[in-house]
Amino acid sequence: MLETIKIDGDLQDVLNDIYKDITSKKLKGLDNPNQSVTDEVVQQQTGVEYLRENLHRPVQHDRGVLAGDLSVYNIAQTTWTSDDPTTYDPHNASYTRRLVKQVVKIAGRGTIVPTAQHLLKAPRCVMGWHTNITGPGKRVYMVHADESNKSYFKYFCSKTQEPVKCDDKKGWQVRMFDINEEDPLWHCVYSECNRISLGFRIIYNL
């Protein structure tokens, strides 16, 4: 099940520093709407019809269909353990060390893997329904939106058998959920504004 995490002062500080760094780099796609992403494409990739047709095929939908431009922000290109993250030398190491401490506070100690979702999604960018089922573990996503109610994270609730839409508010928000074979969490993302997503996978049984 999805859990929304309260952002404390230390986490807010590092996220604000990362936001300043990202926006200073003038990354591709910033403020540049994707004209090719039509309403029809958005409905196909985030609508309930497509989801219900594929609920019985989670492995085939490990990764979502991406429509629209995005840029990758390399906070780290490695895997590290929460016991001693300073022994690694990823890109933007100071941000990495600070973020790892915050992820540990949120999700507990384990092996922390930055996901492919350290991304800047430009306006009108969609990531279709998917499960990430081949990468089980707990997921933490730190998301920044430039505007309120212009982007969202949507997931399928297995208890109610209905999709749940979580609108992003302006600024940062943190969400955590589990990926497992018994109850794969189908989810998708859409944005009408600039949306930054910093993702982490936490593995406890290594």
Notable characteristics:
five-stranded antiparallel beta sheet, 4 helices, alpha+beta, 206 residues, eight-stranded antiparallel beta sheet
The end-to-end span amounts to: 23 Å
User: Nearest-angstrom radius of gyration?
Assistant: 16 Å
Catalogue the unreliable spans.
Answer: 76-91
Content-based structural category: alpha+beta
Please provide the count of β strands.
13
Task: Estimate what percentage of residues fall within beta strands.
Answer: 25-35%
Helix count equals: 4
The helix fraction, in percent, is: 10-25%
Encode the helix/strand succession as letters: EHHHEEEHEEEEEEEEE
Question: Would you kindly provide a written description of the structure presented here, covering whatever features stand out?
Answer:
- The chain contains 4 helices and 13 strands.
- With 206 residues, it is an alpha+beta fold.
- The strands form 2 sheets. Strands 1, 3, 4, 5, 6, 8, 11 and 13 form an 8-stranded antiparallel β-sheet that branches. A 5-stranded antiparallel β-sheet has the order 2-7-12-9-10, covered by helices on one side.
- Strand 9 (151-157) and strand 10 form a beta hairpin.
- Helix 1 runs antiparallel to helix 4 (93-107).
- It is globular, with a radius of gyration of 16 Å.
- Residues 76-91 have low confidence and may be disordered.
